[in-house]
Structure formats: C-alpha cells, structure tokens
Design brief:
421 residues, alpha+beta, Nucleotidyltransferase, domain 5, 3 domains
Length: 421
C-alpha cells in the first residue's frame, strides 16, 4: 500500500494519468519449464487407459507454480521492453530512458501504469494487448477493492462499499454509531470473561477490519487490539469489536485523500510503555507523510518487554527509522529525491539522547545491537531526530485510546476526512 500511495501522490503532483489494467485468466498464461503431470479430469477419462496421466503444456489454476509462472511471464515481457525491477519493491517495474519515465505496478492480475509520456504508454499497452488478454479499464477507479475517486485536488481513497458490506454481514447495518473506535477509558485488565460463543465469527470480522484499516489509520490501534485475541476471544473482546464496528458506522464515508503538495517525507513515532497488562509489552506506532498525504503507518506490539518508557520509545524510533530508509529509497527510484535528512519527530528526549550519544549508558547494555543503527543514519544525514511536544505527536493515535476531543484532533492531523469534505 505505501508503494501504491506514493505512486498516486507522484501522479497527482506531476499531473500524470493513472491507467488501470486487468488481465483475463492470468494464471493460464504461465509457461511451465518443468515436466508436470495431472490425473485425467472427471468426465474426460480415457476408458482404454484409465490410469494414464496428462502432461501439462501450460499453467492451470490450482497449480502451485501458477502464480509464480504468471509473474515471470509478465515481468520477462516487460524486461524485454526496457523495464527493470525496483530495488525497493519487486512488484514495481520502472522504465527510464530518453527522458521517458513509466512506472508499472503489479498486483497479481491488476496493474497500475503511469508516466510522463502518453505516446510511450499507449504503445506499451498495445504491445501488452497483443501478448495477453488485456482489459484496459481506463483511469483508475476501483483497485484492490478500494474506490479511487478523482477530484480537482487529487485522489480520494475510500472503502465505503466494503465497510457497508462488512456491517451488513455482521448484522450491524442499523447500529448506533460510536464517536471513537475504543472506549476512552479502555485499558486492558486481567479480569476473566466468558469465552465468546462463536470464535469463527470473531475471526472473520477481525480479518475484515484488518483489510479496512489499509485506508483508515484512525482504526489501526483498535484493530490491532482486536487482533490480539484471535485465538480465544471472550465476550469482553467481542464487546470491544462491536465498539469498533459502531465507530465505522458513524464514519463510513471517511477515507484517505491524496492531495497535491511538497513531496517531502516526515515521520512521527511514539510508544505506549507496558500497555499490555497480560505480558507488559509496549506498543509501537509510527506514521510517515509525503507532503500532506499519509503514506505509511504501523501499530505493533514490541517483541520483548521494555524496562523503561525510554527503551520503549527507542525501540519504536528504531522501527520508524527502518521504514523511513525504505521510503527514501523508493522515493528516489520514483524520482522524488529527498535532498534533506528526513525529520523523525519523537516526544521522548531521553530516547533522542541515546540515539545521538555515542557512549553506551548502563541502562542500554541489554538492548540488542541492531536497535543502535539509528546513530549511523543520523551521521550519514539520512534522518534527523526532532523533539516534539506530546500534544503535537500525531503518532499518539496509533498507540492508545483517547477522549472524543483529543481523538478528533489527532484524526484531523492524520488528514482522515469524509468524502467531499
């Protein structure tokens, strides 16, 4: 998703068309370099040789090699026409020759194509049409179940149809809306609760919510909390899930705008120390913006218990740094060079001090060495750490519940808004 959002932001800022393509029966196009045999299909058995097998000449649906062989067939075709793989994302292929830039993004049999030369793009699409059963769907409108609405300011990503279906299937199409996805006073407590009577329903809804969160960072924290109890959900866990569904009901038209603006990266990182009462692990949260558009966010429980809030913030800072380095590399391949160090905003002065100080303090001896790579990238001018007041920390919304007023303030800073707002 960050690659898709980066590509859309680039198209908006450069005023490039974004073409959407689809291939019919994609997996049937793959070639098979190995000898593969299958049983005779029912209804087509040779009565004289009932034990004979069929040798496959082409790929079939259901064959384990089918997705890989289709991907190899498509990418080999593109490479013969001058494309190369992105070093940052293997689903992105790049053509850059004679001042012509074309970007080809692949997701199984759905493609996005954009670039600065309409003639070259049309020629490429004509060549693809001759080779594959290509369907040109015109300007991007629905990609991976995400509605992409075009406006004068750019794009608006919405999953309103998906959210409506989710509420209907869950039986909450007419529920009362909630103002926040998590009860403001919600904190995990160890009190026992009866097992939920239908764990399968809980898991289905939790999985659907996970997919909905790819355009709704405002529900990322609540979805992560719901996901922690997939194995043995209780009535209390399902009550929290219902609260999230009620919030979605009240914000069903909300989505993610991608607007024109300066193509400069910035990142916010935060952690909530020992927030999980069951194992005392902390939660890391960080989000990255390209100009006014949020393009990447993460909510994740830390792998080990942190001994202090500083350590928890430092681990979150390390994870955010890794994401920033990848985004900078991808942006450079898309010809969006980041000439200045990317600012990472953190509200913990001690964590910033540990990252900048070359001396290992006694309280950091137990921290794994891989977390200390932050200092190297500060020195190389890839990132810069900037202290920010807690009230201005946007990543707070990814780590803890809030009151209605504070939550709405942070959601606005995330730039999550209703359609046509």
């Amino acid at each position: 998703m960050p690659t898709i959002q980066l590509l859309l932001a680039l198209a908006v800022n450069r005023q490039w068309p974004m073409h959407q393509l689809d291939v019919s029966n994609a997996f049937l196009h793959g070639d098979l370099p190995d000898d593969i045999y299958m049983r005779q299909p029912p209804g087509f058995t040779d009565q004289t040789q009932p034990d004979a097998v069929c040798k496959l000449q082409k790929s079939l649906y259901g064959l384990k090699q089918a997705p890989r062989q289709w991907f190899n067939k498509l990418t080999s075709f593109l490479q013969t026409h001058g494309f190369r793989f992105s070093r940052s994302d293997p689903s992105l292929l790049i053509f850059n020759k004679d001042n012509i830039q074309i970007y080809f993004l692949i997701y199984v049999d759905d493609f996005l194509v954009t670039g600065n030369n309409d003639t070259a793009i049309k020629q490429l699409l004509h060549q693809l049409q001759a080779q594959f059963a290509l369907k040109q769907l015109g300007q991007i409108s629905l990609f991976l179940g995400i509605q992409v609405l075009q406006s004068t300011n750019g794009f608006f990503l919405s999953q309103q149809h998906y959210a409506t279906k989710l509420l209907h299937d869950a039986g909450y199409a007419d529920c009362n809306p909630a103002t926040t996805p998590v009860t403001p006073s919600s904190k995990q407590d160890p009190t026992e609760s009866a097992p939920f009577h239908d764990p399968t329903l809980y898991r289905q809804l939790a999985g659907s919510l996970q997919y909905l969160s790819i355009t709704r960072p405002d529900i990322a924290f609540a979805t992560n909390a719901v996901y922690q109890h997939m194995q043995k959900p209780t009535d209390k866990d399902f009550k929290a899930l219902k609260r999230l569904l009620r919030y979605i009901k009240g914000t069903i038209t909300y989505g993610l705008p991608i607007n024109n603006g300066p193509l400069e990266l910035r990142t916010y990182t935060d952690a909530d120390w020992a927030s999980d009462s069951s194992d005392r692990k902390s939660i890391s949260g960080y989000c990255s913006f390209l100009g006014p558009t949020i393009i990447s966010w993460t909510v994740k429980n830390q792998a080990t218990v942190a001994k202090s809030s500083t350590e928890a913030e430092y681990r979150a800072l390390s994870a955010a740094t890794s994401d920033v380095l990848w985004l900078r590399r991808l942006a450079e391949e898309l010809h969006i060079p980041q000439l200045a160090p990317t600012p990472i905003y953190c509200d913990n002065t001690s964590a910033i001090a540990i990252a900048k100080n070359p001396v290992f303090h006694a309280r950091t001896k137990h921290i794994e060495i891989d977390y200390h790579f932050i200092r190297q990238h500060i020195e190389s001018k890839a990132i810069q750490l900037i202290h920010i007041a807690s009230n201005d920390q946007i990543a707070d919304i990814l780590t803890k519940p809030f009151s209605i007023t504070r939550f709405n303030e942070l959601r606005t800073k995330l730039n999550i808004q209703p359609q046509n707002a």
